[in-house]
Amino acid sequence: YQRRVRDAVRGGSDMTHALALLELVERQRHPLPGPLEQRWSAPSDALLCPAGRHRLRDGDESLFVWLGVVLYLPTRDNDAARAQLGDAFRTLCCAWRDALWPRFNAVEHWAKVLRPRNADELHNLRCRVAANYPLDRCDIARRSVDPHGRLIADNWLLRDVIFHADTIKLSEELHQCCLLYTSDAADDRISVDLGGR
After folding, report:
1. Which of 5, 60, 66, 81 could covalently link to 56 via disulfide, CB atoms 3.0 to 4.6 Å apart?
2. What is the DSSP string of 15-58?
3. Which long-range contacts (CB under 8 A, 24 or more apart) does 135-143 make?
4. 38 vs 3, which has greater pLDDT?
5. At how many degrees (to 10) do helices 79-104 and 16-28 cross?
6. Packing angle between helix 119-132 and helix 165-174, nearest 10 degrees?
7. pTM of the prediction?
8. Contact at 8 Å (CB) between 146 and 163?
9. Strands, E, within the chain: which ranges?
10. Between β-strands 63-69 and 36-41, what pairing exists: parallel, antiparallel or unpaired?
11. Using an 8 Å Cβ cutoff, are 29 and 92 in contact?
12. Residue 64, SS3 per DSSP
């Protein structure tokens, strides 16, 4: 999860969501399997960064605040405990998403999502990811280096969510942009050639 916060440090709004999450944990009696992590960052030019500059208006240099619940799992020789902690973590994350994300305009990190358990969860995940990342632009880059999809074939997140045809289509619809091909005259600021060449 991350969200953009204007004047976060000066106004103290960077703590509001963290306190609301702790209140949710206590009120609903969720086990907290690890610490909360909170950090701040400037905008990034990376297309898949939740703090991407594509989420800001021109000239906006707002801070982004990141808030996460850290999950520590026991060693692999204790599968029952791992499963129990994993289920508790999923329950907490879903309660957090439903109760607080809309209020705080939260965006989950595309690489730290919960694996969907059914078709509805998969569809909802695709919609959330497509709404927050310009995946159509990322897919163009991916196809230039991996035209046959070999690099994503064995990764459920990349194959079934990030670069899935349904997600890319949603992303194209939500991130409408127009590529205008210009001539040398436009580069010289003389005119724009709309006919191309």
Report:
1. 60
2. GHHHHHHHHHHHHHT----S-EEEEEE--B--TT-TTBGGGS-T
3. 135/162, 135/163, 135/167, 135/168, 135/171, 136/168, 136/171, 136/172, 136/175, 137/47, 137/175, 138/47, 138/48, 138/162, 138/163, 139/163, 139/168
4. 38
5. 130
6. 40
7. 0.73
8. no
9. 2-5, 36-41, 63-69
10. antiparallel
11. no
12. strand
- The single-letter DSSP state of residue 14 is G
pLDDT tens digits, 12-43? 567 888 899 999 999 999 988 778 888 888 88
Among residues 130, 123, 131, 132, the alpha carbon closest in space to that of 163 is found at 130
Instruction: State both tokens at 74.
Output: 């026991």
What does each C-alpha distance from 66 to 14, 42, 52 come to in angstroms?
A: 9, 11, 13
Residues 6+ apart with CB under 8 A from 90: 114
